Amino acid sequence: MTSAVDALAAGPVFGLPLPELWFALVFAILGTFLFLDGFDFGAGAIFATLREDAAREAVLSAIGPFWDGNEVWLVVFGGALFAAFPSVYAGLFSRHYLLMFGILGALILRGLAPEMYEQRRDERWQRWWGRSFVAGSVLAPFLLGAFAGNWLVGTPRSLTLVGVVTGVTVTALTVVSGAAFLRLKARDALPETVTQIGVGAVAAYLLAVVATLGVLATRLPAGVDALLSLPVLALVAASVALGVGYAVALRRGANVAALAAAAGLTYGLTAVVAVLMYPRIDPATGATVSDAVVSTLPLNLMSIGAALLLPLIATYFAVLYSAFSGPISAEEAY
Amino acid sequence: MIDPVLASRFQFALTTIVHIIFPVMSMGLAPFLIYFTWKDIRGGDPVYEQLRRFWTKIFAISFVVGTVTGIVLEFEFGTNFAAFSTTAGELFGGPLAVEGMMAFMLEATFLGIFVFGRERVSDRLYMVSSLAVGVGTWLSAVWILIANSWMQMPRGYELVAEDGQEVVHLVDPVAAYLTPRFGYMYVHMQNAAVESVALFMAGVSAYYVYRHHVWGHQTENIAFWQKTLKIALVALLITAPLQVLQGDLYARHVYETQPQKFAAMEAVWDTEAYVPEYIFAIPTDLSQFTDPRAKELFGIGIPGGASWLASGGDATAEIRGLNTFDTEAPPVAVVFWSFRAMVGMGFWFILLAFWGGYRWYTGELFEDGLLHKALMASGLLGIAAVELGWVVTEVGRQPWVIQGVLKTSEGVSPGLTGTEAMVTLAGFVGVYAGILALYTYVVARVIREGPPSVPGPRPRAERDTGPAEVPGDD
Question: Shortest CA distance to B235 belongs to which of B201, B186, B189?
Answer without folding.
Answer: B201
